[in-house]
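Attaching the record inline, Q. Sequence:
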Amino acid sequence: MQFVVLTGAGISAESGVPTFRDAGGLWEGHRVEDVATPDGFARDPDTVHRFYDARRRAAAQAEPNPAHLALARLEQELGDDLLIVTQNVDDLHERAGSERVVHMHGDLFTALCEACGDRSPHAADLIERPPCPNCGERMLRPDVVWFGEMPYELDRIDEALLRCDLFAAIGTSGGVYPAAGFVMIATEFGARTIELNLAASEITPLFDEVRHGPASIVVPEWVEEQLAATR
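Structure, as predicted:
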């Protein structure tokens, strides 16, 4: 069996990683347009750098929770038959031991050079304008997909969705596209689908099976069932 697992903010929230967007749509008191768009970065790069530098530090202090660790165990059993597609920009899946991870919305721990397009590992603050390790220009920005930009590796994700036998969505709101449409693609091509979420999402009715509860509880239980089925 081939699995595609989509993870969202709900899986990292239990590790203490804040979602940053409140009920009013503000990101830590900032308008989305100011900290999560190319135009916002062009207008006020210092504010954007401070915002993401703080996010990076917060993510570095978090630890993988039982849901991340369970998915890593599942990957150890399934190998290339499991692909994790995450909307999260933290590195908790990798620190839990997962290796087959697609960060469709980018990665806090890499930097994107606006001069040469290089994407390089970077864990320090960007507010100081460090040079690009590839070209030397001081034009690094957070390697995060902002509103109006194309998510990463959509071709690879689509190919996996077309081939998968089971699609699972964990900790997602179901309100952000194209990720919210993945369940429809998987269903159309014959996959069984399951949602593991704290509560119902905007797309809950589209899934074959739904389990509600904290990710740190429902995900390990689900993984154990999958592991038992493969033994």
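The radius of gyration is 18 Å. Strands lie at 3-7, 82-86, 101-103, 106-113, 119-121, 140-144, 166-170, 192-197, 209-212.

More tomorrow.
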